């Protein structure tokens, strides 16, 4: 089954982790298309950029907490997980450089375009190399990991934290603290806007 089949077949019901990750990827691709066609000074552009930052921050953290540790159980998975973490790091640093900045600013837009390029490259590798290795875990296990990943999303940080640990158990502990702060910040900002 291809990644597209996974995404197209999703219904929101219980799903294996590869289906969930592919669905997240398609959603972010859609958000980038929406951002690039919006008027840079519009509320839609600002809100879409905020969602891109939120979705990617949550997605990266839950992969680091749930997906990549499971990947390391498979032969050849360690090297793939290490490589993925390096790509996440560059992504998080670039996201942090734009978080909270006005998207009408050309330098912010240039960095968001850089984020899109990094995401496209990373997603391509993830859906090809990581997915093919993860399938060795079997469908039942992939379903259980999918449930864990969806649960982790509910309490994941919503902003990039490039200086936080990115492997267990440090990332789980730091992630819980960061998530509380992020979600309070988000709530305060939504009251103001
Ligand atoms: Fe990733
Ligand atoms: Fe991903």
Describe the structure.
The chain has 193 residues and is an all-alpha fold. It contains 7 helices and no strands. The longest helix has 29 residues, at 43-71. The chain is globular, with a radius of gyration of 16 Å.
Q: Major β-sheet, in short?
A: none
Mean pLDDT reading: 92
Strand content: under 5%
Order of helices and strands: HHHHHHH
Shape: globular
What is the structural class?
A: mainly alpha
Sequence-ordered SSE layout with sheet pairings:
Layout: H1 3-8, H2 17-37, H3 43-71, H4 77-98, H5 106-134, H6 139-153, H7 170-192
Bound molecules: fe (ii) ion (2 copies).
The site of one fe (ii) ion has 5 residues, from α4 and α5.
Quick recap of the structure?
The protein is mainly alpha-helical and 193 residues long.
Keywords:
193 residues; mainly alpha; globular; binds fe (ii) ion
